[in-house]
Design a protein that fits this description.
354 residues; mainly alpha; ABC transporter involved in vitamin B12 uptake, BtuC; 75% helix
Length: 354
């Protein structure tokens, strides 16, 4: 009983330290933002007001902020699944992009199909596309011990150019001045639930997916094995767990979530696949996962936080005199500090093992 009490106290202490470190990180990021605003803006008070209050002032801004968080939740989930198994997926950008193209191509190929059938098939195509792309890196690591961090990044970079070629080539819309495919049929569009914003019903399903992902990771036998392989692969191997399997499976999950993020962006918001639509979703997903400490449920507020920063910067740009790049700087500071914490914890863990 005494040992159990000590373990509870130690766990609570660790949670407190983690929460304090996260608050310090976010505080430092906002301090940088305040300094930038005071240096760059002629009306800093007005700029700060629009940055913080702007996204909440009307339904349009609020809905679009929530809508922007949807793909970030999915990419954050994808990175969390990989990181939980000590696998590193740096190819999220290409997987989102390819997933969006796959969903678009399926919808364009059957414009007269029913809504349920078309949406289901297009989402499945996007999930499968992302899973196969990321799964390749996991397979290469299992088979030849290829570093998945490098292979996922290189495959992703190559895919971006291939997707660009399809968008500007075979699937290009000749009637549109933009570099984009044709619009998908209206029956495939996700239902808008918060007009006049772009927020669609997919946010409900993505939140449910995040909760189910949490139960899968922490309440199922396979989730336990996946996490054990991430914590100590040698111990897992001696315990009879197939470590090779959990080099591929987490990457399949990770790619599936990224592919789904691309499909949701197309079917819910843009209704077409235009060049560069992924716009950093894959990279921001890494920061979202790190802020959430690879907890699928915590990915939800982490994604909302990143979307809030972006929406606040847009509001300040429209109503004040700063550029939207201020959000990128704040996001970069958060990413840098969170990554520094993760590296510190990893080094500390390695030293403890020695």
């Amino acid at each position: 009983m005494i040992l159990k009490g000590k373990e509870v106290i130690a766990k609570r202490s660790e949670m407190f330290v983690t929460a304090a470190a996260l608050l310090i990180t976010l505080g430092a990021a906002f301090l940088v933002m305040f300094l930038m605003i005071f240096l760059m803006s002629k009306t800093p008070g007005e700029t700060i007001f629009y940055f913080f209050a702007g996204p909440l002032t009307n339904k349009y801004y609020l809905g679009n902020m929530l809508n922007a968080s949807i793909p970030l939740m999915l990419t954050g989930l994808g990175i969390s699944f990989a990181f939980r198994s000590s696998m590193f997926n740096l190819g999220g950008e290409g997987q989102v992009y390819a997933g969006g193209l796959a969903a678009t191509a399926v919808c364009l190929a059957m414009p007269a199909a029913g809504a349920f059938f078309g949406i289901t098939v297009s989402l499945a195509a996007a999930v499968l596309t992302g899973a196969v792309i990321a799964g390749l890196s996991g397979f290469f690591k299992m088979k030849w011990r290829t570093d998945e961090l490098i292979s996922s990044f290189l495959i992703s970079n190559a895919l971006i150019y291939i997707v660009d070629n399809f968008i500007t080539g075979p699937l290009d819309d000749p009637e549109n001045n933009l570099l984009t495919t044709s619009k998908i049929a209206k029956q495939f569009w996700f239902k808008n639930i918060f007009p006049p914003s772009n927020l669609d019903i997919s946010i409900v399903f993505v939140v449910i997916i995040a909760v189910l992902a949490f139960f899968y990771l922490f309440k199922t036998h396979q989730g336990y094995e996946m996490r054990m392989c991430g914590l100590n692969p040698e111990f897992a191997r001696y315990g009879g767990i197939s470590v090779g399997k959990y080099m591929i499976l987490p990457m399949l999950w990770s790619g599936a979530f990224h592919g789904l993020a691309g499909a949701v962006s197309v079917l819910g918001t843009s209704h077409m696949c235009f060049k560069g639509f992924s716009g950093g979703m894959g990279w921001n997903g890494i920061a979202v996962a790190l802020i959430a400490r690879n907890n699928p449920v915590a990915v939800i507020p982490a994604a909302l936080f990143f979307a809030y920063l972006e929406a606040g910067a847009k509001s300040a740009m429209i109503n004040a005199d700063v550029t939207i790049e201020i959000a990128s700087v704040v996001q970069s500071v958060v990413f840098f500090l969170i990554t520094a914490q993760a590296i510190y914890n990893f080094v500390k863990y390695r030293k403890a093992k020695v």
